[in-house]
Specification:
Helix content: 40-55%
Mean pLDDT: 78
Distance between the termini: 44 Å
Strand content: 15-25%
Shape: elongated
Number of helices: 12
Structural class: alpha+beta
């Protein structure tokens, strides 16, 4: 359905830009196959609604459409003049071209690598002065997008389409269905996160893509919640991970385990040959994070965090017994 609409919009844009005089609705209806089919199978009203929506969509995309009220014996005519819709020549200096090259290389390990490489090739053909490979430093950023949910969620966020998926919370033994209006995706500390409006819970939520199981399915209909102008996914994830927290948790970690926790430690002290004791920033969501490491982590304090982790582990153990 989305591809059919994109093709219809492209055909309408070509008709409006490749004519020297304004075209009436009737002429456009005969020129665009989708309009002709809608008129033959439906009614004049169905065609008019489709045309008006498409015209508004093209204008939203930046196409300037002129309307002549008396172009064709009193009929309204439509025209997209080339001189008003021609983009200026692309002029980038060496630093701007280098920044675009670096941005494209960020996606080399993700599914957008083809689109990024194609864009660079087109700019290079247009004479943009891209630096040679050898001129770049040895250290370059990489953003992996290996999760199967990455591409469908990116498309849904772009097209503003609701989605459903199965999600396994941290410390949970099984996944549960979620209905989400996706806002934005962002990579933080090697993991991709989705921020959006959780319809079932009626509030904003952040989901780690690696915990999404099964397929991401698009749903019809518009968003029900307001989309914020800026979504700082990293700030939300950091807050749930304990970043910037004023409290400190004391945990014991088995030697050679839980390296992500060790990276966040404020202080590390050896206990014996098997255990280390760490001071970790304590914020909302730390209990779920600690529960993932199971027997490799023991919470010393505070007591509410210890109780939270124990409750989570007992819940997982109970579900495992039921499954057996």
């Amino acid at each position: 359905m989305a591809i059919a609409k994109a093709e219809r919009l492209m055909n309408l844009a070509l008709c409006l830009m490749n004519t020297r005089r304004p075209l009436s609705k009737k002429e456009l209806r005969e020129s665009v196959e989708a309009y002709r089919e809608a008129w033959q199978q439906g009614s004049e009203d169905a065609f008019n609604r489709m045309f008006e929506r498409d015209k508004d969509d093209l204008r939203e995309l930046g196409l300037i459409i002129d309307v002549d009220e008396n172009a064709l014996d009193g009929e309204v005519g439509y025209l997209a003049r080339r001189d008003r819709n021609r983009l200026p020549e692309i002029a980038l200096d060496a630093e701007e071209a280098a920044a675009l090259t670096l941005a494209a290389r960020v996606w080399q390990q993700a599914k957008m690598s083809g689109a990024a490489s194609g864009a660079l090739q087109k700019l290079r053909a247009a004479g943009v002065p891209f630096a040679e490979e050898r001129e770049h430093g040895a250290l370059e950023p990489r953003i992996p997008g290996r999760e199967a949910a990455f591409e469908p969620l990116l498309t849904a966020a772009r097209d503003r389409r609701p989605v459903t998926f199965e999600y396994r919370k941290a410390g949970a033994a099984s996944a549960e269905p979620r209905s989400v209006e996706p806002w934005a995706l962002e990579c933080w500390r090697g993991h991709w996160y989705l921020a959006g409006f959780d319809r079932d819970r009626g509030s904003a939520r952040v989901f780690r893509l690696s915990r999404i199981t099964g397929k991401v399915r698009s749903r019809a209909g518009a968003f029900t919640g307001d989309v914020p102008e800026h979504v700082d996914v990293r700030a939300v994830v950091a807050r749930f991970a304990g970043e910037g927290a004023t409290a400190v948790a004391v945990v014991r970690i088995r030697r050679g385990a839980a390296y992500p926790l060790r990276q966040r430690a404020l202080d590390t002290r050896p206990v014996d040959a098997d255990w280390d004791e760490l001071d970790i920033p304590y914020g909302n969501g730390l209990g779920a994070d600690l529960a993932e490491y199971g027997p490799d982590v023991i919470v010393i304090g505070p007591e509410d965090l210890r109780a939270d982790v124990i409750d989570r582990l007992r819940a997982v153990a109970g579900l495992a017994e039921v499954a057996q």
